[in-house]
Amino acid sequence: MRSPGIAAFLSFLWPGLGQWYAGARRTGLMFAAPILVVTLVLASWLLQGPETLVIQMLTPGTALTIVVLVGLLAVWRVISMVDVVSRLGGRTVWRRPALSGAVAVMVVVVLVSHAAAANLAWSFYQADSKIFSQQTQPDITPAPSGSQDVAILPEATPVTTPATAQSRINILFLGLDSSEIRTHALTDTLMVVSVDPATGSAAMISFPRDIADFPLWSGGTYHGKINALMTDAERHPSRFPDGGVTTLTKELGYLLGVPIHYYAAINLDGFEAMIDRVGGVTIVNASAINDPNYGGWKQPGRIGFHLSAGRHTLDGATALAYVRSRKGVGNNDFERARRQQQLLVALEHKLSDPAMLPKLSGLLDDATRTIKTSFPPNRLQEMLAIGRSIDDANIVRKVLGPPYALRDMTAPDYRLVLVPKKLADLSVALFGSDSRYATATGAVSP
Fold it and tell me: Which of the two residues, 293 and 443, has the higher pLDDT score?
């Protein structure tokens, strides 16, 4: 005689197995089929890489569907166990304390495990609203002291969108120099990443933060430094009606010669936490860094930063110093910008490691407090495929230091002034006919 307890345990492991064991194969297939379909879908995502799973979960409709589906499957598993026990023993079998107790324990395990899975899916659903901005008004107010939300992130809708699926995609990456011990939010990392789906190539262009006295897309000249433009625009809406993020996005696109479609803002405080979460990132430092004047991120004063040339695995604090230090012997803002590009690529490689899957929940929490972007989540899968097709050798990396920007020796402080002709030539070389400078003749001025 078949045991109801064994049948219940089999259906606990996989709905329908108990029915199959009990001889009700058609009913067993009915209970097994929904779980099999869900498992195959998840497996197909995982086979494409962990990033595919994450991207699918970041799609609001998918995440919410999974929340509902997880709840329904929990009920389905419980029904399967109850059905097979009743099928083998009838109603009287539930009077056995050992059997009813064992089934109750299995039901609790099912409910708890499915609640945890639903909670993770719900976290993805909530993360979508926090990471992917749909707001029209920016917010760069420093977080209050003691706030759990370490990210001070702007919000803005895309300025423009690519014309077709094969059109060039330009994204502005902002690194915000802010934390709860600081009272300002400067954009100390200004990097444009341009991806051309048609050619499978990409370019990374960094704007040094000391670029100043540059023409505004709306007319006139901005005499401050470029890393203060976003905050300045937010504080003076009469002069900059588009707000901080949109003003900065349009301006960098204007100077570079191509429209910037989306932005991704990264708060450096959360950036440190994310790198620690993944166990550090590995880079090859081209030359020794010796910066005795480096100031601590969370500690006021000078603590210094030193790193020998060669291969290193950097923890969060060291990685942050690596991308922030710029005043050591032989170092400057241009070298720092190159290190920022290098570290961004290294972090992307680390996040694509399947070993990061167990850390998914923590990484998601870090991301919601670290990243804000106007990039549409429904194009993430497409961007992932494009990114995988681009070899590192096909990524052009440029920093707009000399000869594209030169130091103004007449200024009382350190500032760089763009060289219009050099910048125009670079734009045409990188973007071809997509550049607005391509239609100009002779000496081109932005």
Answer: 293
Alpha helices (runs of H) in 325-436, residue ranges in sequence order: 333-351, 360-368, 380-389, 420-431
Joined together, the tokens standing for residue 294 give 């480096």
Give the position of tokens 């000249």: 221
Could you say which DSSP state residue 43 is in? Answer: H
Distance CA 35, CA 58 (A): 22
H-only helix segments in 59-183:
60-89, 97-131
CA distances from 164 to 167, 168, 388, 427, 431 (A): 5, 9, 20, 21, 16
Domain boundary among 106, 131, 156: 131
Q: Residue 267 has which token pair?
A: 């708060």
The contacts of residue 356 (CB under 8 Å, 6+ apart) are: 50, 278, 350, 363
| 10-24, 143-157, 219-233, 409-423: segment of lowest average pLDDT | 143-157
Query: Is the pLDDT higher at 364 or at 82?
Result: 82
Helices and strands counted in the chain (H then E): 14, 14
Cα–Cα dist 233/157, whole Å: 16
**Could you say which DSSP state residue 150 is in?**
-
Per-residue tokens: 361: 């929940």
Range of the domain at 211: 169-439
Name the DSSP class of 187. E
Residues 299 and 372 both lie in one domain: yes
Q: Based on the domain organization, do 110 and 239 belong to the same domain?
A: no
C-alpha distances in Å from residue 410, one per residue of 45, 226, 332, 407: 58, 18, 19, 9
Check: CB of residue 337 under 8 Å from CB of residue 399: yes
31 and 98 share a domain?
yes
> Residues 25-51: what's their mean pLDDT?
88
pLDDT for 180: 45
pLDDT at residue 114 is higher than 90: yes
d(CA 403, CA 401): 6
